[in-house]
Amino acid sequence: INKALNQKIPIVALESTIITHGMPFPDNYETAIKAEKIVRYAGCIPATIALINGQIKIGLTQNEIYYLSKTQSTKKLSTSDLAMGIVQKITGSTTVAATLILAALAKISVFATGGIGGVHRGFEKDFDISADLKQLASVPINVVCAGPKAILDLPKTIELIGSLGVPIITFRSQDVPAFWSRKSGLKSPIIAKSVKEIAHSYLVRSQLGLNESQLICNPIPIKNEIKRQIIEPAINQSIELAKIRQIKGQDVTPFLLSKINEATRGQSLEANKALLFNNIDLATKIANT
Ligand code: PSU
Ligand code: MN
Which of 23, 39, 237, 269 minimizes the number of CB atoms within 10 Å of its CB? Predict the structure, then answer.
């Protein structure tokens, strides 16, 4: 990674919670390896980020990716967990929030993930808002996602992102995309017509002294899309089940993703893979510009 930075080879950061908590084995392993392949094929260096025995890893070996994929007990580390994770020599995956912190430390400016966290539905009761949002507002990175995860309260998530000064930039889309679906029914605040515009705007933001990330929302490819009418019942059913089972905090998102995958008989997992690869593809183009 240091070599890449010195030689100015573009780097694309990747998070690891999608490996440990976002997908089942062996799909998670295959997806993480393919993700890195796509980055390399585009002439960039992949940096999958995690904590291994308390050591910050910016870039993982294939064995480390396999270990994270296979080990059920791996911790999910967000902003607040990082420091003690290092002190206590924990092995853990990093969420979008924690990955942002470490990518910024490593001077990486492009990061691809599936979907970001946000304001959970019914947040009035439990105040569940992902630390991803606060962290997006704290470091200047190009974050490519397929929109906030559709399990969230999307209008509230989009409002809060705006309040934090993080620009939501959709890539050639009138609508803010909703992870598995291309449309959320919510109008995009800022539309980028090209990769060049995204790269340019990143530069201008830095000249303006703005320290927030740019959130690039890239709709899932048409052929992999699950329409909102189809996915929404599965989401609602899974949220109900999470309530009954009293799933809380960090466990909510992984629980919902896995239940939605069961309800859609694997369709949501396949869509998740496709949107991730599509985001990585766009991220490499931004990194190469
Ligand atoms: N994108 C995916 N799958 C995932 C995630 C993102 O396609 O599992 C992870 C990211 O690591 C993100 C986390 O930070 O879900 C959000 O979790 P929470 O709501 O607990 O902050
Ligand atoms: Mn949460």
Answer: 237
